[in-house]
Design brief:
This protein is an all-beta fold and 240 residues long. The protein contains one helix and 14 strands, in the order ββββββββββαββββ. The strands form three sheets. Strands 1, 2, 3, 5, 6, 7, 8, 10, 11 and 14 form a ten-stranded mixed β-sheet that branches. A hairpin with a 2-residue loop joins strand 1 and strand 2. It is elongated, with a radius of gyration of 22 Å. It starts with 6 loop residues before the first strand and ends with a strand.
């Protein structure tokens, strides 16, 4: 058997579950689900609140585009997500408002912006800055990978310039976790077949051990076979 790979560290075996794992926000209001909370410098109307950029969807809401929009005529501003606790991210992605009319879609996306982090909501630190970000299609989800993982509670996008529209609009914002791994009870042949991966890349980033894989263990003694469950409490460890 060739082409199956598991990772090993400290005599433990791990399977890569996902290279590009994203934090799930799926917000339904500015402070739900808890402990998440969203704020912004302005909004066009009650139909386009900031939390729409973190609801996990770009699908239209009835006849309305699912997005955040600043007040009409306002081409700068900020939008922020409070995770409620310090949270490690490896990057983020931005998707335009799903409107094929450039004036309402890609022209309103941030062109020049800063990405900031804070642990108290008062003192912010510059994580990265971006210039001349031009979108060519409203369907494009653009991923921005940081040079190294960062860990803050608050993440803010400070928009300094858009692409020429009459306001700023963003369809969806997602935050990249990094690599997600599962710990296996053993490095058995069957686990290589079931959980081994054929290609590993992009592992120079934060790693999240998401959970244990539980399996049955069969042993033989003078009283016959015994089946016991290799079961442990789910574990979530974040390593930088």
């Amino acid at each position: 058997m060739t082409g199956y790979i598991l990772l090993q560290a400290n005599n433990k075996k791990y399977s890569i579950e996902s290279i590009d794992a994203w934090h799930e926000t799926k917000m339904t209001s500015s402070n739900e689900p808890a402990p998440l909370a969203v704020s912004a410098s302005s909004q066009y109307s009650a139909d386009y609140p900031a939390w729409r950029a973190f609801d996990g969807s770009i699908a239209n809401v009835g006849s309305l585009n699912n997005c955040w929009i600043t007040a009409n005529g306002v081409k700068v501003g900020h939008i922020q997500l409070d995770f409620g606790r310090t949270t490690t991210i490896r990057g983020f992605s931005l998707t335009p408002r799903q409107n094929s009319t450039a004036a309402s879609g890609i022209n309103c996306m941030p062109k020049k912006f800063n990405f900031l982090g804070s642990n108290d909501g008062i003192n912010y630190f510059l994580i990265s800055e971006y210039k001349n970000e031009i979108w060519s299609a409203y369907t494009e989800e653009r991923k921005f990978v940081l040079s190294k993982p960062v860990k803050y509670r608050f993440y803010k996008f400070e928009i300094l310039e858009n692409n020429g529209g009459t306001y700023v609009s963003i369809g969806e914002i997602k935050f990249l976790k990094g690599v997600v791994m599962s710990e296996l009870p053993t490095g058995s042949l069957q686990n290589f077949i079931d959980y081994g991966k054929g290609l590993l890349s992009n592992l120079d980033q934060s790693i999240n051990i998401k959970t244990y894989v539980t399996q049955d263990e069969i042993s033989n003694n003078d009283k016959g076979f015994r089946i016991s469950k290799l079961d442990r409490k789910p574990l979530y460890i974040e390593m930088i």
